[in-house]
Amino acid sequence: MSRETGRDERTGVVLAGGHSTRFGEADKAVADLAGTPMIRRVVDRLEPVVNGIVVNCRKEQVPAIEDALAGGPDATFAIDPVPDRGPMAGIMTGLRATTGEYAVVVACDMPFVEPALVASLFERAAGREAAVPRLDDRWLQTTQAVYRAAPMIDACERALERGERKITEPLLTLDYVVLDENELREYAPLETFENINTRAEFEVASDRLE
């Protein structure tokens, strides 16, 4: 029988180290989305269900992200030691900076992340090594999932050493539970997984939020 994880064992890791190539020259993490920087929207939605926030990013992003988060929840920065190694390396770096046993990992371009779903992922992950949503009966949503930090760090390290870049590769060695669409819909509309890659998607999201 799995045990529940307390809020003090839970950390939120926000991935913001990508180069936003499809978004243009600006860093989408700090882009003003209907009056609030996008990363701030993600952090604000995670804050009620975690005990701390870690932001994974490149060193040069820190000042702008600090400004975007000013006045909100405190955040620790986990800087990529080797830039441009992809989201798996970002997850590993972010998890290394966590203090709780479990962490939810969310991309900075998911402003509709649903706190109730995050709480459910933590509950389902208890006693396991990960809880991962699955969409369309095939697609694992690894950047809105909960991981037990230590085994996921080890799995990412091994995958990177093998030269793997596929973000689902570390899961192959973990004891993880999958939440399918029917279960996900009990806690959140599927728009929780919408991510913003382009200016057009950004404008649509802005209109919805306004």
Automatic annotation (TrEMBL):
E.C. code: 2.7.7.77
Positions with a binding annotation for GTP: 15-17, 28, 56, 84, 109
Residues that bind Mg(2+): 109
Cofactor: Mg(2+)
Subcellular location field: Cytoplasm
Keywords assigned by UniProt, alphabetized: Cytoplasm, GTP-binding, Magnesium, Metal-binding, Molybdenum cofactor biosynthesis, Nucleotide-binding, Nucleotidyltransferase, Transferase
Protein known as: Probable molybdenum cofactor guanylyltransferase
